[in-house]
Structure formats: C-alpha cells, structure tokens
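Hello support,

Our group uses your service weekly, and this is the first time we've seen a run hang past the timeout. The protein is Ribosomal protein S18 acetylase RimI. I'm not sure whether the cause is the sequence or the server load. Input pasted verbatim:
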Amino acid sequence: MRNLNRGDLPGLTGVLRATGAFTDAEIDCAVELLQIVLDDPEQKDYIVAVAGEEGAPIGYILYGPVPLTEGNFDIYWIATDPAVQGSGIGRQLMAHAEEDARSRGARIVCLETSSQGGYERTRRFYDKGGYLEESRIRDFYKPGDDRITYVKRFSHGKEE
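Update from on-call engineer: The timeout came from a worker crash unrelated to the input. Re-ran successfully.
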C-alpha cells in the first residue's frame, strides 16, 4: 500500500468505472473526495491507501475518523480493478485501513452499502471480512434500495 498521488486520479477513475458498480454521480463523488485529499494535505477527514506499487493503481480505499465521535471510523470507498478482484487486493486494502484506524484509536469501523442485487458480491466481501449488519434503512437511496450499515468493533486494539 502507498499514499495517493495526483497521477493516480485517471487510473482510479478508470477502476471505479470498470467495476460497473457505481453510477456516474457516485464516481464524481469518489473522485471529488480524492481531490480533497490531494488539494488539502492538512485535512484530517480522509485517508487514502492505494494498491499498486508500480505503474497504474489497481485499487484504493478511502476512510477516516468520524467527526465528533470517540474512536469511530468510516470506510467511505473501496474499489479494485475487476482484473484483480478475488486475488486478495481488497482484503489487503481493508486490513491496511483497519490496522491504521486501530493505531489511531478506532473502537468501531463502519461502512454502508446498497441492498440492490448488484451489491451482493460487495455484501459477501464485508461478511467474510468480519463485518456485521448493524442497521438497515428501507428505501434510503430510492424506493426498493435500502442502506445497509456494516460494523466491525474492536476492543483494546483487537477485533471483537
């Protein structure tokens, strides 16, 4: 894993598009957050880890501490190139974010996703990673599309 650099933006935009999981508006939002990280190195809300040591990036994770909470972190985005999905890159990105969050005092890591069928593989990925469904808000994104929040809890630096 490495830090984000400006040259990663076209490759990461391509990764987001290639997944087929995100709408154009979602991709614009994801790229906007990457821009914030690049344009404001002093900001503390978002942390990015990029997979791919040489050449084009093959994935990334964007996460950060939740303001006004004690030890709560959110994972906002994770994406890997479909060509490497299933090879463990996503797991490595998650493990990196969790380890970094724990080193910063994380008690809880949260993430959210859609209930739509196209996100079934994503939900299985979270389940296998030890995340538990904590809540569901029906019709959150649109009618028939629930927001599912997953949580992983840590106590004394270890997973519960």
